[in-house]
Amino acid sequence: MTDLSVGLQVSESKSHSPISPDINPNAVLGAEIYIEQLHKFYGQVKVLEDLDLHIQPGEFLAIVGRSGCGKSTLLRLIADLEQPSYGEIKFKSARHLREGITSDDIRVMFQDPRLLPWRSIEKNVQLGLPKERHENASELLKKVGLEEKAALWPSQLSGGQRQRTALARALSHKPRILLLDEPLGALDALTRLDMQNLIEKLWTEQGFTAILVTHDVSEAVQLADRIILLDKGHIAKEFKVDLPRPRKKGIDFANLEQQVLNAVLAT
């Protein structure tokens, strides 16, 4: 397994619509994920119990729920940072049924950008890439609007710019799965909206499978194809987000947001 801030593994839910037609035909397509009878115990404490999820290749899944419901534990299990007590997490490539998915195909973006302070922004994005793929890092810096910041140190950037750097670093590896563990939680409201738009744009272009853990119900509705609500280690409810992209906060958006919020509050 590679450095935690650079790469890791993925998982999630039932079926959803086909991959977006806007995806670049040369993109690395997302992986399909199967979670079967997943249990996670810490001593006598049951965090996840008999969890079954199926995530389609290229799906954007959001996980919501109260603190302590098992959201981050589920991501850590998918990322292979922890091992299940029982059950399996399996991956299947969208390109070929017999082609496997490894840790190199999975990246994680955390709330803390986890940049190396002694490396420039460009060197941070290149971290873990062979020299022949360093141009991938340069391309991603352009896409996240940081081309002119490439030679600066992380301490010279704003919080939002550091998170853009972390996103560029994750995607420079062309992952098939991207795990997002509340990556926008520490940002101000306007920067958070900018980052949501950027993540959606790059997901649409590249076609990776995305799983977002968030406490922000509006963010879940804004980004996801499907939202699952975890409660006491179980899937309490599931919501399909059947809204056109790019999404606007009209009546349908507000109604779904309220439904999800009511469900969270009822747990």
Automatic annotation (TrEMBL):
Record keywords: ATP-binding, Cell membrane, Membrane, Nucleotide-binding, Translocase, Transport
Top-level lineage group: Bacteria
Family: Belongs to the ABC transporter superfamily.
Keyword Ion transport in annotation: no
Region annotated Disordered, chain positions: 1-21
Record organism: Acinetobacter faecalis
InterPro entries named among the record's database cross-references: AAA+_ATPase, ABC_transporter-like_ATP-bd, ABC_transporter_ATP-bind, P-loop_NTPase
SMART domains registered for this protein in UniProt: AAA
Domain ABC transporter: 33-257
Official protein name in the record: ATP-binding cassette domain-containing protein
Polar residues bias: start-end ranges: 8-18
Record has ATP-binding as a keyword: yes
Pfam families, per the entry: ABC_tran
Gene Ontology molecular-function annotations: ATP binding; ATP hydrolysis activity
